[in-house]
Amino acid sequence: TRLSHLASSNTDLSCRLVQSEEERLKIYKELVEEKIKANKIREQYEEETFELKTKSGQDLTEEYATLKKNYQILAEVHDKELAKSGALTAELLVLAQAQDALRRQLEEQHQCVKTSTEGLHGELDRVRALITRMSHDTVKENQDEIKDKLEEMKSSYKEQQKKLEEKVAMGKEHQQIHRAMHVSQQKVSEQSAALMCSQRQLKEAEEENSKLQLQVKELIEEYRTRLVCYLQDIAKMRGFIDSMLQDVRLSYRAREEQLATAARSYKKRLQRITQTHHALLIAYLQREQILAKPENGLDPGPPEAHFNLERTELKDAMEKELQQLHQDKARLEGQLQAAWEQ
């Protein structure tokens, strides 16, 4: 009975040991799966971060290209406005010179008209005085000559009046030209204001462009630094995973060898116990037969208690095995906790 109990106890302990090893291998497998899952999550996070950085860089590049295109358009408009302003300035200068010439000509004509008008008025006064004197002197023989002179004076007066009207028309035309020049000056002023506004916008666009270029450079440097850090972290993680997998493989191999050795020793031990059990059964049957026939005078041998194991010996073996299992369990839990902390 005690031998069967010992055999069953050893079998139970071996089963527990095998179950403990299976649980340990299962824990190691779960740990490796968790590490792989964590690495996948980290790689996914790094890929998403890289995509976001790349997208922001592309947006900045597109915005920079748009600003550069707007800058070129403003520069072309600025050049056109400068050329147009130069042409308008030259035209305005020509108009100003023409205005000065017309003003001088008009002043000269006005002076001539004034002089001729004063001469005509003096001539008329002289003619009137002559007519009065001739009427008083009753000189009739010179009336034809006086009429001729009057006709000549009338014709010269009409010519001068016609010239005066032409000069007045020229003055009106000069005023119209002056108004047109004033309108042109207003247009030139408006275009100059628009040109100044375009120059200010161009300067602001250049400043914004320089700021965006600086931001692009800073983002590129930051992205490069982060990429180097990510690559270093990936290399470290890969080395850590490789070393961890190597340790796990070595541990698995050592444990497999240990289990194989334990299984072989257990098999040999079981064979020895089985042989001993058969021998004991045979000896027990022989002893029972001898005790059943005391008349034969055969020696039955030592008593039954001599073949039984001590309770302390059985207890020591079980405690050693259980202590070994507890130590293996504590060591596995410590390794699992350290792996989770990493």
Helix content: over 70%
Query: Helix tally?
Result: 3
Oligomer: single chain
As a percent range, the share of strand residues is under 5%
Quick one: how many beta strands? Answer: 0
Please provide a brief summary of the model:
The chain is mainly alpha-helical and 342 residues long. It has helices spanning 2-137, 143-292, 311-341. The chain has one domain.
What does this structure look like?
There is one protein chain. The protein is rod-shaped. It has helices at 2-137, 143-292, 311-341. The mean pLDDT is 71. The relative contact order is 0.10. It has one domain (2-341). It is built from three helices and no strands. The protein is mainly α and 342 residues long.
Key descriptive features of the protein:
93% helix, 0% strand, rod-shaped
Any chance you could write out the topology, listing elements then pairs?
Elements: H1 2-137, H2 143-292, H3 311-341
Helix pairs in contact: 1-2, 1-3
